[in-house]
Amino acid sequence: MTGFKETTVSSWTELRDVLEHLSTAGWAFRGQADTNWPLETSLTRYLKTFSHAQDDWLARERKMLLTFQRKAHLLLSRTPEAGETLEWLALMQHHGAPTRLLDFTWSPYVAAFFALERATTDAAIWAISAGPAVKNLRGFAISDTLNRIFKLDRGQTNTRRRPSKFDDRGMSKSALKRLAQDGRIPPAVMGEPVLMNQRMTTQAGTFVIPLMQIDSPIEAFLPPASIFKVNLKTKKVRRPTMDRLYNMNINNATLFPGIDGLARSLAFELEFQWTVDTTVAERLASR
After folding, report:
1. What ranges do the domains of the chain cover?
2. Which residue from 18, 111, 116, 135 puts its CA 20 to 30 A from 129's CA?
3. The dihedral formed by the CA atoms of 208, 214, 217 and 218, expressed in degrees to the nearest 10
């Protein structure tokens, strides 16, 4: 599907007005540093680049998940509960694995930060509405659907009780298509794991998760009315927007807790030189 609405902004005030309208209407947001980039998950991009045989993509994804589940306990003091597949995928993504989860945020200003922080060309903020077309579900409901797609049961997802033999294949394309046609599996959903990590909490994070197909950009199969795109003229809007976001305490140090966030935040200090205008208070008082 195509034909979603979009707009272009060239100033901070234009951007602020657009985001203010969207922020109270149940939209989730994603900032991307290039307006030409589609809404593709890291799994889709990886498989498109390195595996052209789409018929076995689901089996490869399932095998990757099961391999991680078998070995993660060796490196972590706690692993997700059996059956919490969304939490497993979120953990994988957090540590660099390609997954079908696409990071979004409930904050349009956090999305603006990620769109513009390192942008060198025109950027974009994508918005997807939570509603009938893309339901905002609780984590356990999303996990149950993913378990059906991957043909996992709670015994199989518990690494300590998994049978010695299991079917390496996920649901077939034809079976998945039948469930989709019957309305039992939607094209995509959004939501968060039952247990969220610190980064998701500080970024007001959520996920948009394609369920029917992982071989196409998300905007290609969602109803156009559920998508809105804000194109950003980076050369005009980046500096004033980053200034405002910095004053709102939206920066790498707050969005990525810990030493990594502090280190990442120093690039902003390197780029912008701050000065203090001591006459501002006097000018305001004289009005």
Report:
1. 5-249, 251-287
2. 116
3. -30
